[in-house]
Amino acid sequence: MAAKKNKKKVGENTIAVNRKARHDFFIEDRFEAGLVLEGWEVKSLRDGKVQLNESYVHVRNGEAWLANALITALKTASTHIKPEPQRDRKLLLHRAELHKLIGAVERKGYTLIPLNMYWKKGMAKIEIALAKGKQLHDKRATEKDRDWNRDKARILKAR
């Protein structure tokens, strides 16, 4: 019997992307983490009702927590629960990764930010980054470089 072909479109497993993160931060290292979610949150993720814009990751009692991420409850959520859209959600990381993150945040002054949320083998995963904040002049320099690269590509294409 022939093998089944996976007909998923590119980007179909992406739930949400934090576009502002690359503008505001220099990204040093990336980690994949699982999320501890409730049932209504999973349904909302499947419907795409999540925002990562102002969210961040903090470490508390040796565990990583996703804070300020907005997961809006569906209208069909159960009546016997009170959904909290912005509650802290626990992140599932390996112990060695967690120790590396804790050391970088506490000693080196890094920040943990979520980059994107996606599905992997039916599980909701989040990509978090170890990042340093950009100052205004850094943002301007990055934008200037991006514009120059775009203009350079146009010039080379015209030849």
Summarize the SSE layout with pairings.
Blueprint (H helix, E strand, L loop, with lengths): L13 E4 L2 H5 E11 L3 H8 L3 E2 L4 E5 L2 E5 L2 E2 L17 E4 L2 H13 L3 E10 L2 E11 L2 H23 L1
Antiparallel strand pairs: 1-8, 2-7, 2-9, 3-6, 4-5, 5-7, 8-9
Tag the structure with descriptive keywords.
7-stranded antiparallel β-sheet; 4 helices; single chain; 159 residues; alpha+beta; two-stranded antiparallel sheet
Explain the overall architecture.
This protein is α+β, with helices and mostly antiparallel strands. Helix content is 31%, strand content 34%. The chain has four helices and nine strands; from the N terminus they run βαβαβββββαββα. The strands form two sheets. Strands 1-8-9-2-7-5-4 form a seven-stranded antiparallel β-sheet. A two-stranded antiparallel sheet has the order 3-6. The chain starts with 13 loop residues before the first strand and ends with a helix. The mean pLDDT is 85.
The helicity comes to 25-40%
Strand tally is 9
Main structural class:
alpha+beta
Name the shape in a single word: globular
Give the H and E element order: EHEHEEEEEHEEH
Instruction: State mean pLDDT (0 to 100 scale).
Output: 85
Alpha-carbon distance between the two ends: 51 Å
CA radius of gyration: 19 Å
- Strands ordered across the widest β-sheet: 1-8-9-2-7-5-4
Can you tell me the residue ranges where pLDDT is under 50 for at least 5 consecutive residues? Answer: none
Largest sheet: 7 strands, antiparallel
Could you tell me the strand content as a percent range? 25-35%
Q: What's the total helix number?
A: 4
